[in-house]
Amino acid sequence: MDFSTFLQQLVNGASLGSMYALIAIGYTMVYGVLRLINFAHGDIMMVGAFLTYFAYNAGAPFSVAVLVGILGAVIVGVLTDKIAYKPLRDAPKISLLITAIGISFFLENLFNVLFGGVPRAFKAPEYLTKVFHWGSIYLPISVIIIPTVTVAILVAVLWVLYRTKYGMAIRALAFDIPTVKLMGVNADSIISIVFALGSALAAIGGVFYAISYPSIDPLMGVMVGLKAFAAAVLGGIGSVTGAVLGGFILGFTEIMVVAIFPELGGYKDAFAFFFLILVLLFRPTGIMGEDLERSRF
């Protein structure tokens, strides 16, 4: 592999890793507070992408369509918590896990019945599909925008967590929900904020994914969601910074494996999970796992 090809794959890896990172933040925040692996999170990403698609095709400006997708994903995420998870707050964790899997199947099949399983072409505005050439490097504008937005969102999320009273409440809930309730904090409202924030990021990740791979379908969140979850585990689930780091590592790994071993491109998903297993053999709590034990998020 020559240097220009390496740089090309580096840029592609940053773009793919950014999408995993955005979705992984939602996984890690919900787990950090409720110790729940929200397997429906990848499908909420799908909801955001679908609503953006419908709004844009109905004639709305793309920015407005994205806001519609984000708002729809937030509503679905918060309602999922209120209807499916809240009644099980005091139930064994396995009940929450099974419920999350059920919600995932429900959303996938609901969209499959309503809109069909045939993939739909996602046409982004021209200004997001322009391509620049830097020497022999092929540079779509989206691969610059996506990592930039991801880093900006990470900074914003960390600011909310460490510089606002809501962030303080979220971090307190992550340690001890009953005690926080005794102090007069409305825990359910704070948990709703966590779901809203995670769902909004998932919707943005879904739109980015649809721009990069211009096709959407009701099952688009299954593999992407699993990889984002793997990224959260790789970085140290419960750590926002770790989720972003894990997303970038997983994205780079997936792209580089295909670039270095093109004949094994069909196994790129297997390589991504094999890398996760390899890392966890040496760091069972993930890359940021030790910090997680001292302070969540």
Automatic annotation (TrEMBL):
It is a multi-pass membrane protein. It comes from the Bacteria. It comes from Nitratifractor salsuginis (strain DSM 16511 / JCM 12458 / E9I37-1). Pfam families: BPD_transp_2. GO terms for molecular function: L-isoleucine transmembrane transporter activity; L-leucine transmembrane transporter activity; L-phenylalanine transmembrane transporter activity; L-valine transmembrane transporter activity. This is Amino acid/amide ABC transporter membrane protein 1, HAAT family. The chain crosses the membrane at residues 6-29, 62-84, 96-117, 137-162, 190-212, 270-289. Keywords: Amino-acid transport, Cell inner membrane, Cell membrane, Membrane, Transmembrane, Transmembrane helix, Transport. The lineage of its organism: Bacteria, Pseudomonadati, Campylobacterota, Epsilonproteobacteria, Campylobacterales. GO terms for biological process: D-alanine transmembrane transport; L-alanine transport; L-isoleucine import across plasma membrane. Belongs to the binding-protein-dependent transport system permease family. LivHM subfamily. GO terms for cellular component: plasma membrane. It is found in: Cell membrane.
